[in-house]
Amino acid sequence: MASNQQVKILGFVASPFVARAELALKLKGVQYEYIQESLANKSDLFLKSNPVHKKVPVLLHNNKPVCESLVIVEYVDETWTGHPILPSDPYYRALSRFWSRFIEDQVWLAVFKAAWNPNKQEREKGAEEAREALKIMDKELKVNGKFFNGDSVGFLDIAALIIFYWVPIIQEASEFNVYSGDKYPNLEKWGQEVLNDPVVKGVLPPRDVLLSFFKTRFQSLVGSK
Amino acid sequence: MASNQQVKILGFVASPFVARAELALKLKGVQYEYIQESLANKSDLFLKSNPVHKKVPVLLHNNKPVCESLVIVEYVDETWTGHPILPSDPYYRALSRFWSRFIEDQVWLAVFKAAWNPNKQEREKGAEEAREALKIMDKELKVNGKFFNGDSVGFLDIAALIIFYWVPIIQEASEFNVYSGDKYPNLEKWGQEVLNDPVVKGVLPPRDVLLSFFKTRFQSLVGSK
Question: Taking every annotated instance into account, which residue ranges of this chain make up the domain GST C-terminal (chains A, B) (predicted)?
Fold first, then answer.
């Protein structure tokens, strides 16, 4: 990387979305400064960089902010050479984008509801919706190699990491049951490959740190309601 | 286009999402066959092509299905040469993708609630959320030329067409007030340029057809509740 390139990530340790941005940078071999944000006391730099959503991650590239984790991943892929992140074939690029949207809109929103909705019935509804979405994914998504598209970690593997690593921890912390690998054999097999990748391992926050964080979050949002 | 290329769009006349896919193809000068789907009686081809969402549009390129309107637009841009749709600068590509997500997740979901939620209070809440989202967009999004990025219609112009053309018609049909151009001067100016483009004009369904369709939809979903 040229010495005049300044790359920073505004992040938060428990966030699966920050891990996506960091993983993209690490795959490309880009050096970056990680700045830990406090979500309770957001910095001026953070609020100025993401005034629309006020969410991590933010990538600052020579002071220009790029927001939203998957937008950052594509930006990183288009800005730095080296390890290709999106597939080269437009059809697999389209499938990667399609399923990444599915993970955001169907799986994650349902998991979010299952974990942190204050209403118990809503939480149960969320868990059911998440199981349904994972069932569809397990059936319809065709993994085309060791990873989603070939033998190296790519866009959809990065997007799906939230299912393979975070969801099992969040469900343990929030006392629901959405993702049991054996019920989704295709996702399970794919997930094992992704979690075994050494670069992926390098961005995963320790399990016990996440479990403790999400247990506290569950107690504060849901308590015994 | 090579004669061995077969391009079809499965669509529905009132859909702003189908218009996006058609606009991308027309900008590229790609010949395609438009197949009108009945949403009440979905064809086998349609259900086979989009088993996950069962929604229009579907692009069939040599029988391979591509689903989700903005995924289709990127696929079209990456598959055919000619009129570039995404900006060439990665930063403007990122901004285009960021704001297109904002239109989907913030503006459109709120408009959808304002228009068709059976509960009046929820409809009012939706209208308020939509106005708030449009206010943020009007303030934070910087249009960088006649269109979002330069002098020709691009990705974000295509994504935003739903605000400029469909939302005013839907609000008239559903009796709410979300988008008055004069309250969002930057969006208004940008929208006028987009709506005046001759290729854009070629994909817009007639106003009276849409108004009648959305009035019927409002009556059937909401009635006098």
Answer: 89-218
